[in-house]
Design brief:
928 residues; alpha+beta; Rossmann fold; Isoleucyl-tRNA Synthetase, domain 2; seven-stranded mixed beta sheet; five-stranded mixed beta barrel; 28 helices; 38 strands; RNA-binding
RNA sequence: GGGGCAGUGGCGGAAUGGCAGACGCCGUGGACUUAAAAUCCACUGGGGAGACCCGUGUGAGUUCGAAUCUCACCUGCCCUACCA
């Protein structure tokens, strides 16, 4: 063969050619339908890992497919380049975050270019560049002006490792740890900036205009946590109001005590002198306890009586006020009315402290009222109200909110008596955006003794990050110690003022980046209205599920807030002139979303070793070490020889599991001899340790480097493998053997195409069969691209390869039919393996570029089978298969089926009771 | 405790009411080779000489027909959690 497949030569050449030509430059074209496809932008950690490839390459393939289908496609890329990693690197390695970030981005750009994407690099942006964060700051000012940003002192979550506050969404898990570093958070009282996300709670619950995965919608819905009920105002004996939220206002007549969160502002006032010491003690205890301690104690209720009393507004009963840490200051009003009869937590608390329980409902289907002393747990089900004055006899049907007649009746009474009103409460909190860190966009505000909080005028943006800063992790922003940054003059009065030294949560930068791609160098606004009117909104977004309640909520909030601040106004006229109807187009950032899965590390057994040496206490000091092939070669229970499977290696120490299941720690030294088959001068570094299926991480040693794969196999093969290996939405553990399949496929295609057309006598039947297969492949590949079923898409193309190999062996189609098949196959492959498709396209005498070819048209007539296998079933079991013409009539099919050998044998002369004919599947089922 | 998703060969997976296991990896046998790699050919869910039988986490059900629909259970993963 004259020409061998050398991806290392082909791929860089085409990558350069395409870029020099601007083949993938996306320009506004009102005559063509646009498609804005986007993948979540990477953080510039410094190395593109296999997860980036897995997220981007299939997305790129789909964008390419849409492009060939005739859409004007925009597929941009940028960097989420503010953030803690850069700052931590600065502290650790004494490199400036800017230097570190820029260097990483430069390297990653090069890596990304090997992937063969249709990224339009002219539109790249990085969120840490001043011409980007100027507009992040501008959005802050817009939100501030429109009342969507406010500053408040509150108990906020603080990560002691990252030395900064976190938004509620960024605190994860049972132990409430930092999303980024895993350290449990602590509470701090701080003045912080918030965005009013809760104003949008109701709108964020509405997912009806977006095609997003159910899972994401459910997670967001649960996160927002809407509950319907009522606000009720109780009063202390002194007349101070205590507002509570309840989902069960119908049970108000059973409220026998109140509980305040220990941090509640009224606690001090209510507490009587006798109780003061006990209360102070309890508050101190609660503050001291970490979240972990609280959970560790399970649901054991603790609390203290304040000595104070409140009046139940519906029946004027005098009820005691307690404090307890099961009431959270951060939810609702930080105070509850306790109804031990109908709420399990209140029930437990009442039983613990001997408080009154008043039944207020007769459970459905029972003919006697419940007796408080006999109850084992609270009753939360439906029934008829009792002991509840004006609402006695009304039904609580178990439905939530006003759908329950009893709840509706209770709300009416509250509103009539003006002691409360129907209300909706959300679990969602306002978004805390202040971060006490350097490497982020400065919040553009100043504090003036004369004028108070003053926004920086738009014309003075951006507020630049100073370069010369000490990166000491103090828990306060390093900017606070930068005199030149800190001290400024008040924009209003010109007097001395200090700047806000906190920076913004980096999720703020990524909340609007889809807009900046449109015009990354535009100077008169965050994006060019001309571009926006054409490209917006994003048609297809792809990325990981981990951002369901973070980035994906924030960007939805941001888009809606932008709309309400009038940011999209300038686009309207342009859109109208273009003939685009933008109704509802500013409500959601991304119309469709697809979540790809994650690639996990490859599992592997550790080396089996036999070690000679001696035990020194618990450890075994090795003099020689040998890798063996069988567990039977390892002696057990000896003093000078041990061994087993290597489970872990830390420096020169090995953790080994012996054949009888014990764990031994083996120390090796400079003079320890190593005998490892396949290595000349073996050393400890060549010992392989056991790997479980886990997330990839450097410390685990299970990281797959895409650069190495590209060097070895070429980007086309890596792309194809990532699309073929798993269901894209699922992901799974890496399999280093599996890449052989796609590697052979790509190489086969090369050899098939370079081998040229067959030259034997053509067989019309074989020609028809080949054309049929080609058109069936067009349909299946198109369907697969549409539905993100990339694995079956590649499988179909592999199957076509198999058929072409058969044709080569049989040498029985004409050059015309052959060439048509090759042409179509290359076009179908172009989105998946862009380099080899282009190279072979040109080599087979076609015009540059294959990536400007239209997607092949599917012809159902050519794809139709003319003969099918008729499956004959008796009572649902396959008993025969017969070849019949595809257009066989029902009668003929049934007749042939009844006469078939297998059917006759299994019917044993019985009469068919019923015969079912399935046309589409070519099947006859005979019931006897 | 609440909510969601999933369970198919040794492995990744295909089939969403109609021939279970497409496509690929691994494996086995053979060809080529002094040999190996690569490549090519054949086989590759289990049982059985075979006709056939069994088989999609378990058990029931609906149906002429169930991996697919319904119910219960088991297992795993994800989210959430004293949310009033």
């Amino acid at each position: 063969m004259a020409d061998k497949y050398v991806p290392q030569e082909i791929e860089p050449r085409w990558a350069k050619h395409w870029e020099d030509d601007g083949l993938y430059n996306s320009e506004i074209d009102p005559n063509r339908e646009k498609f804005y496809a986007m993948t979540m932008l990477p953080y510039p950690s410094g190395d593109l890992h296999i997860g980036h490839w897995y997220a981007m390459a299939p997305s790129d393939a789909r964008a390419r497919w849409l492009r060939m289908k005739g859409y004007n496609v925009l597929f941009p890329m940028g960097f989420d380049s503010f953030g803690l990693n850069a700052e931590n690197a600065a502290i650790k390695r004494n490199i400036h975050p800017k230097t570190w970030t820029e260097k990483n981005m430069e390297y990653m750009r090069q890596q990304l270019r090997t992937m063969g994407t249709i990224i339009d690099w002219r539109r790249e942006h990085a969120t840490s560049h001043p011409d980007y964060y100027k507009w992040t700051q501008w959005f802050f000012l817009q939100f501030y002006t429109h009342g969507l940003a406010y500053r408040k002192m509150s108990a906020v979550d603080f990560c002691p490792q990252c030395n900064t506050t976190l938004a509620r969404e960024q605190v994860w898990g049972d132990d409430r740890h930092c999303e980024r570093c895993g350290t449990p958070v602590i509470k701090k009282d701080l003045e912080q900036w918030f965005f009013r996300t809760t104003d949008y709670a109701e709108e964020l619950l509405d997912h009806s205009h977006i095609d997003w995965p159910e899972r994401v919608k459910t997670m967001q819905t649960n996160w927002i946590g809407r509950s319907e009920g009522a606000h009720v105002t109780f009063r202390t004996e002194a007349g101070d109001p205590i507002e509570v939220f309840t989902t069960r206002p119908d049970t108000l007549w059973g409220a026998t005590f109140m509980v305040l969160a220990p941090e509640h502002p009224l606690v001090d006032q209510i507490t009587t002198d006798e109780q003061r010491a006990a209360v102070a003690n309890y508050i101190a205890e609660a503050a001291r306890k970490t979240e972990i301690d609280r959970t560790a104690e399970g649901k054991e209720k603790t609390g203290v009586f304040t000595g104070g009393y409140a009046i139940n507004p519906v029946n004027d009963e005098r009820i005691p006020i307690w404090i307890a840490d099961y009431v959270l200051i951060s939810y609702g009003s930080g105070a509850i009315m306790a109804v031990p009869f109908g709420d399990q937590r209140d029930f437990e608390f009442a039983r613990e402290f001997g408080l009154a329980i008043v039944p207020v409902l007769r459970p459905a289907g029972q003919d006697a009222d419940p007796v408080a002393d006999k109850m084992a747990e609270a009753y939360e089900g439906p029934g008829i109200m009792i002991n509840s004055g004006p609402i006695n006899g009304i039904e609580h049907n178990g439905e939530k909110g006003s759908k329950s007649p009893a709840v509706a009746a209770a709300i009416k009474i509250l509103e009539d008596k003006e002691i409360g009103h129907g209300a909706v409460n959300y679990r969602l909190r306002d978004w805390l955006i202040s971060r006490q860190r350097y490497w982020g966009a400065p919040i553009p505000m100043v504090y003036c003794d004369q004028c108070g909080i003053v926004p920086i005028p738009e014309s003075d943006l951006p507020v630049l990050l100073p370069d010369d800063v000490d990166f000491m992790p103090t828990g306060e922003s390093p900017l606070r110690y930068h005199e030149g940054f800190l001290h400024t003059t008040c924009p209003t009065c010109g007097g001395p003022a200090t700047r806000e030294t906190d920076t913004m949560d980096t999720f703020m930068c990524s909340s609007w980046y889809q807009f900046r791609y449109l015009s990354p160098h535009y100077d008169d606004g965050p994006f060019d209205p001309e571009e926006g009117a054409y490209w917006l909104p994003v048609d297809q977004y792809t990325g990981g599920i981990e951002h369901a309640t973070m980035h994906l909520m924030y960007t939805r909030f941001f888009t809606k807030a932008m709309r309400d601040c009038g940011v999209f106004g300038p686009m309207d006229n342009v859109a109208q002139a273009m003939g685009r109807d933008m109704t509802g187009m500013y409500d959601e950032p991304m119309l469709a979303l697809f979540n790809q899965g994650m690639i996990l590390g490859e599992p592997r057994d550790g080396d089996l070793i036999v070690v000679e040496g001696a035990f020194a206490g618990e450890k075994f000091n090795a003099t020689s070490l040998k890798v063996v092939t069988s567990i039977d070669d390892i002696p057990i229970g000896q003093q000078t020889v041990t061994g087993g499977e290597v489970m872990r290696r830390v420096e020169t120490t090995l953790n080994v599991r012996t054949p009888d299941g014990r764990d031994v720690v083996i120390d090796t030294f400079d003079d320890t001899t190593f005998d490892i088959p396949g290595f000349e001068n073996a050393n400890i570094n060549q010992i392989k340790h056991h790997l479980e299926v886990e997330k990839m991480s450097k410390t685990q040693g299970n990281v797959v480097a895409p650069d190495e794969l590209v060097n070895e196999y070429g980007a086309d093969t890596v792309r194809a493998y990532l699309m073929f290996a798993f269901r894209w939405e699922q992901g799974g553990p890496w399999d280093s053997q599996g890449i052989q399949g796609p590697a052979r496929w790509v190489e086969d295609v090369w050899n098939i195409v370079m081998g040229g057309a067959p030259n034997g006598p053509a067989d019309p039947k074989a020609e028809r069969a080949l054309r049929r297969r080609v058109h069936q492949t067009i349909q299946k590949v198109s369907d697969g691209m549409e539905t993100f079923s990339f694995n079956t898409t590649v499988a179909e193309l592999m199957a076509l390869r198999n058929d072409l190999k058969t044709v080569i062996r049989d040498q029985n189609v004409s050059a015309t039919v052959w060439n048509e098949a090759i042409e179509t196959m290359l076009t179908l492959m172009a989105p998946i393996t862009p380099f080899i498709a282009e190279e072979l396209w040109i080599k087979t005498g076609h015009e540059y570029s294959i990536h400007n070819q239209p997607w092949p048209a599917f012809d159902p007539e050519i794809a139709a089978e003319d003969e099918i296998t008729l499956v004959v079933q008796i009572n649902g079991k396959v008993r025969d298969r017969i070849q019949v013409p595809a257009d066989i009539s029902e009668e003929d099919a049934i007749k042939l089926a009844l006469e078939s050998e297998g059917a006759v044998r299994h019917m044993e002369g019985k009469e068919p009771r019923k015969v079912i004919y399935i046309n589409q599947r070519g099947m006859v089922n005979i019931v006897v």
